[in-house]
Amino acid sequence: MPQFLHWFLRFSVLNPICLRLIGTASRRKRDLYIRASYLAILSSVLFFGLLAITATGRFSLRELAAGSANVFVYLCVLQMGLICLLTPIFMAGAITKEANPKTWNILLTTPLSPLQIVLGNIFGRLFFIMALLLGALPLMVVTQFFGGVALDTILHTQLVAFCLALFIASAAVTMSVTRTAGRKAAVSFFVITIAYLLATYAIDSQLRTPVLVGSNATWTTFLTPFNPFLVLEALLSPSQYVTPEVSSRPWLMGWITTHPVAGWCWLTTCSSAIAIVWSSLQVRKLGQTPIKSNWLKQLFTANGSERKSRVVTGNPIAWRERVTRHRNLGGVLSRWGFVSICILALIVLVTLYAAGGITPSEFRGSVLALVCGELLIVTFSSIAVSASTIAKEREDGSLDLLLTTSITPTTYLHGKVRGLVMHLLPMVLVPCITMIAVGILVLIEPSSATVGTKEFVRGGSVASIDIPVALFAPALLTPFVVIPYIAFCLTLGLLWSMRSQGSIGAIVSTLILVFVVTGGLGICLVPSSNMGFIGGLFASLSPVNNSFAILTPERTLPDLIKGGIGPANISLGICSIAAGFFWMGISYGLLRSMASSFVVTVRRLAG
User: What angle, rounded to 10 degrees, do the helices at 182-207 and 228-236 form?
Assistant: First the structure.
């Protein structure tokens, strides 16, 4: 073999770390279940979408092509969301897993260069994302049977998804190099990814300008090449999200603005290359033992003084979770920083709305984007914290000490839930406060807080109804939905933390289950949206769906609005309270089941 080819292969497909990751991970049932679930979700969406096309009974070529194109759009958006979710899962322990079992020093003594170590971790774990994309490609091609979807469009969407996976993989490895624990890297990366996508999409929606006066079509903005979902929108809806042929911006910025797909691919590829080079320069620092300085502690601690003992009140486990987690300076700053930023954004939106700076429709759209982002971050934070708490105590040996005390499994688990709820309560209250503020605004000025009128056929006659900015009753009852739902996520995270050996595995399993449950409720909302009270009940079971039902009831629950705004407020308010009791009952049942099998499961994992 030529020396150059051998050198190139050792950096790519014949990289020892890449071969080891593919060889070992391919035998895990978890990865098999993830791949099977990914394809099952896409196949279900494709099946029901094609079934909905043929169920209409209209088989003209134009309608079949339009329906096939709509199904393809749903598939692409869902695939992009799954790639955003699964790529950090595969990449979370890219380098940190080598450090946890104390094998990092051994790895650094091998002839592998730092670049080979980084590329091996990236290519080895990116292989599974490529397998997902290749497995989904036949499903995308099926949409061509009815027409309406060009082959180059399918290939371009797969290229956008691959570039997204490459960028996330490189960024995840970069974050892993700068961290000492895979759980912290995964939590930080998920939060940053969600915040970035939501922020760029929200800013882009405000910067859009119509192509013509009174037209629904808008021009793309300079942010389009920086967000994969905006790139997909420009690629799949060229008549509504129009790309300009020329741009007045400087050369490079103007080129990526007029070529969003190519601009996205080049931006992600160049950024990934820079991240890989930087990680290679920093990778050997993981083998060095950092010298920790306690100058801050010494500055505020008097010499020779002893800390006073604290009195444990109530459940000791809940007290321990509440007190010890508040000592982490990074956790305190991130938690209260999130609260401060979200409250500041709410104040700015309310001020602009009250001063007439934005229309009620724009205010409603901005609040919806803000609340959805808050709910996603809070949900993932609750999963990350709860799914790692028992596994972390098992890893550091503190669980063995707790089991020697008189604390029962019921006391331990209930204390965990209570302590974690109190720890996350400031973050959980943020979306609740946002929705309550909107509900109060509508309640104070119901006549001016309207986004327009909509006509419904009721009793054989056409009735016109003023659509408010939000339904005030369910908005005021948002805590009855959000807090029990977060408690359910915490309980589910504790369940998998109890059953898993490591923190990353518990977080992955809990994320998948929460995604399946929430996604299933979202799918159930589609056919039940025209079923009145039943549709409101399904909408209230998910905080995100509940937000859409409160802020956009005319689109989410049209049948419920036909009876009037007052009955819709009452019905959705009752559904919110019922959803809260539902999640409380599920959480209580899970806690009882966990308490009965706690000792057996913990001893089995301890060997």
Answer: 40
Residues 6+ apart with CB under 8 A from 511: 85, 89, 380, 383
> Measuring CA to CA, which residue among 536, 522, 547 is closest to residue 579?
536
Of 255, 260, 253, nearest in space to 238 by CA: 260
Tokens read off for 438? 């909107």
H helix or E strand, kind and range, residue 466: strand 461-468
Interatomic CA distance for residues 73 and 52, integer angstroms: 15
Q: Which is nearest to 572 in space by CA: 538, 528, 527?
A: 538
Quick one: pLDDT at residue 511? 81
What CA dihedral angle connects 163, 167, 173 and 179, to 10 degrees? -160
Domain ranges for the chain, please list them.
3-286, 316-606
| pLDDT tens string 2-16 | 777 777 777 777 778
Burial 446-462 (b: 16+ CB within 10 A, else e): eeebbbeebebeeeeee
Residue 590 near residue 413 (C-beta atoms within 8 A): no
Q: How far apart are CA 494 and CA 519, in angstroms?
A: 21
Is 269 within 8 Å of 160 (Cβ atoms)?
Answer: no
Does residue 455 sit in helix, strand or coil? strand
Residue with the two structure tokens 């290359």? 273
- Average pLDDT of every residue of the chain: 78
Residue in 286, 88, 271, 272 with CA at minimum distance from that of residue 177: 286
Q: What is the DSSP letter of 439?
A: H
* Listed residue (198, 252, 262, 264) closest to 225, CA to CA: 264
Beta strand residue intervals within 351-399, DSSP E? none
For tokens 């931006």, the residue is 267
Predicted TM-score (pTM) of the model is 0.68
pLDDT category at 301 given cuts 50, 70, 90 is very low
Q: 436: pLDDT confidence band, cut at 50, 70 and 90?
A: very high
Q: For residue range 446-468, list pLDDT tens digits in order.
A: 777 787 777 666 556 666 777 88
Residue 384 · residue 508 · CB < 8 Å: no
313, 318, 321, 322 alpha-carbon torsion, rounded to 10°: -60
% residues pLDDT > 90 (the chain): 6
**Sole residue written with tokens 């486990």:** 317
Confidence bin at 396 (pLDDT 50/70/90): low
Return the pLDDT at 300.
Answer: 44
Please measure the distance between the N-terminal and C-terminal CA atoms of the chain and give it in whole angstroms.
48
Q: Mean pLDDT lowest for which of 294-308, 341-355, 529-543?
A: 294-308
CA distance 280 to 277: 5
